[in-house]
Target: Proline--tRNA ligase
Amino acid sequence: MRASRFPLFTSKEIPTDAEIVSHQLMLRAGMIQKLASGLYTWLPLGLRVLRKVESIVREEMNKVGALEVFMPAVQPAELWEESGRWEQYGKLLLKIKDRHEREFCFGPTHEEVITDLVRRQIKSYKQLPICYYQIQTKFRDEIRPRFGVMRAREFLMKDAYSFHLDQGSLAETYETMYAAYTRIFTRTGLKFRPVQADTGNIGGSVSHEFHVLADSGEDAIAISDTSDYAANVELAEAIAPPGDRPAAGKPLATVETPNQHTIEEVSALLGVAPEQCLKTLIVEGAEGGLVALVLRGDHQLNDIKAEKHPAVATPLRFASAERIEQELGCKPGSIGPVGLPIPVLADLAALYTADFICGANQDGKHLQGVNWGRDLPEPQRADLREVVAGDPSPDGKGRLHITRGIEVGHIFQLGQKYTKAMDATVLGENGQPQVLTMGCYGIGVSRIVAAAIEQNHDEHGIVWPEPIAPFQIALVSLNMNKSTAVAEASEALYRQLTDAGYDVLWDDRDARPGVKFADIELIGIPHRVVVGDRGLKNGTVEYRSRRDSANQEVNLDQLIEYLR
Ligand code: ATP
Ligand code: MG
Ligand code: MG
Ligand code: MG
Model:
């Protein structure tokens, strides 16, 4: 591709409405353009990256025998009424009416449509298991679209759905998919981590998310320091933007009280107002768990259900966040994660704006309250660790700590939630109709592009992992319009490199070297080859890797070898 025919819409200005670096860089590099809140046009440069991610995903899906389909984006209301999600899905669902006043939605996900397809297509157990997938635009009317394509309203998802005669077959495919996801994220060149996850409003039992690790990630992940244990803390909506996070402080007071203390007693001991403490004392037989994190201010939180929380191994018998809110008469969404061990909450309290946390000790016999002061320096947090030392992790190995991630993939063992509700059966071996068992597997294809930048950038711009870079090599010609030697050598090199299979952006523009170099760094091309008169006199070009600051002189005729 010649840059003279491939306009680079680069800009030096940091866009004021872009909070995180990937959003800023995608705009500055001219990858995307905003149309309206949560709606983005992919410009040619951005689309090249999106398509590369997409083809990695497609190749790995095809490898495991998933069959590509392409379903409508607009879906009839009747299907969602059958599954019960027409009401349940809430405001994320964009509902629309056609000219006959029939109701439709713009698909945020496709469990209903695929279940309808399968109940009409698949008749016998002999056709099972079967797995379909598509790569398609979804629409979710997100409450706070932000961070560009990271949390957009319209975005590109790969969604796959598998159907089985029994749970054993589902578990097998789930494992195959887990392995395929591991290959996909390995191939994109990103640092990632699979974690246990909540199943949210999709439903089902077993579930894992794949997270690209990045400080700006919206999700908090609890990771054990000594074992493989990792789980999502599901704080997705709760985060304060990185800049707003309070400095860590130290507990002003900690108390241990016998179980069943009243809120008034604990608050008196801690020296905080009872209304700050919440009635988290509705802990019932808290074996191994914690209670609630009280947040200050107007934080929006996911409705986190204590009894399902992935970071807690034993099912807890706590009230849900909503119930606690009702009892206390506080605003819906003001209560944070329920059911986490104290060390996790301590970290969360430091990350967010908790004034106070309280909960039950591991032995279930004591209630512990911690008044978390944020005006004290970091080293003193050690005090809190002392207080909570001895609280194991959920799998009994090591201690949990919190890191941040960007959810780029999510797989579920759904079981029969949709197939039962929608009566999707096949004839079993005994000739009797049998309800299908189902799994579903999502990847945020467009989100991966932003996540990759969040993880790979420097002060000059994006630093693409090679497998998803828009171009692999930038061929920069200096003063080409004045030097025939440069023009001829560049043209020959361009041919040679493209023939060798490289994606090359040939910067043949009539622009100052500094401008060209800045653009190439900003858009993050992994390899840069500079052709200039000075080098050509010695038969060399200049090579520099995007991850390096030093140039290498390379003989023209050895360049291809060198790049390998
Ligand atoms: P999140 O927790 O970030 O809201 P989700 O759990 O609602 O995501 P899923 O229903 O699991 O999302 O959808 C599968 C994948 O689609 C997610 O893992 C994520 O990568 C991607 N995705 C979901 N919502 C968005 C969005 N608003 N913008 C871009 N990608 C998204
Ligand atoms: Mg969501
Ligand atoms: Mg999620
Ligand atoms: Mg998810």
User: Anything to note?
Assistant: Residues 209, 407, 410 surround magnesium ion (ligand 4) (CB under 6 Å). The chain has a mean pLDDT of 77. Residues 294 and 510 are 60 Å apart (CA to CA).
